Amino acid sequence: MNLLELAKPNSKSCSAAMAGHSGAGDSGDSDVAFGDVTVAESKPVVRTPPLYRVLLMNDDFTPMDFVIHVLQKFFSKASDEATRIMLEVHHKGAGVCGVFSHEIAETKVHIVNTYSKQNRFPLKATMEKAES
């Protein structure tokens, strides 16, 4: 076998040399034989990450307009949906702003709490694991 044959990408001898077996009798399974040892390729198990709800908590000092502003600015809520969530916060004590992966939920909680503090309002955001 010369170097030109090994350099051809469609060459059976090239692929056989790189795979470590002759290529003859290959049945198409995902097992790879190396001499007397057969290695079965495993498929990775992919799980969806757990999701977390971001909640706004009610307080007696934050104006309703500011809560609506926060929902629109950081959660991209339309005016009517932001108003509905704000009323849920006001009447029930907490309202769900959205459901996110852990890192995104953590970031949303941090930026809402920082923004509220910068504007001198006690509005607090928290996160909790969503039921599966």
Would you spell out the secondary-structure blueprint of this structure?
Blueprint: H1 3-7, H2 12-19, E1 31-34, E2 37-40, E3 51-57, H3 64-75, H4 79-92, E4 94-101, H5 102-118, E5 124-129
Antiparallel strand pairs: 1-2, 3-4, 3-5
Helix pairs in contact: 3-4
Helix content: 40-55%
* β-strand amount: 15-25%
Choose one word for the global shape.
Answer: elongated
CATH fold-level assignment of the largest domain = Ribosomal Protein L30, Chain: A
- The CATH level-2 architecture of the largest domain is identified as 2-Layer Sandwich
For the largest beta sheet, what order do the strands appear in spatially? 4-3-5
Say how many strands there are.
5
Question: Span from first to last CA?
Answer: 58 Å
Total individual domains: 2
Q: Which residues sit in consecutive blocks of at least 5 with pLDDT less than 50?
A: 11-27
CATH class of the largest domain: Alpha Beta
Q: Which structural class matches the secondary elements?
A: alpha+beta
Task: Give the ordered list of helices and strands.
Answer: HHEEEHHEHE
Question: Would you mind describing this structure in some detail?
Answer:
The protein folds into two domains: 3-40, no CATH class; 51-129, Ribosomal protein L7/L12, C-terminal domain/Adaptor protein ClpS (Ribosomal Protein L30, Chain: A), CATH 3.30.1390.10. Helix 3 (64-75) crosses helix 4. Strand 1 (31-34) and strand 2 form a beta hairpin. The chain has helices at residues 3-7, 12-19, 64-75, 79-92, 102-118, and strands spanning 31-34, 37-40, 51-57, 94-101, 124-129. It is 42% helix and 22% strand. The chain is of the alpha+beta class. The strands form two sheets. It has a three-stranded antiparallel sheet with strand order 4-3-5. A two-stranded antiparallel ribbon has the order 1-2. Residues 11-27 have low confidence and may be disordered. It has five helices and five strands; from the N terminus they run H-H-E-E-E-H-H-E-H-E.
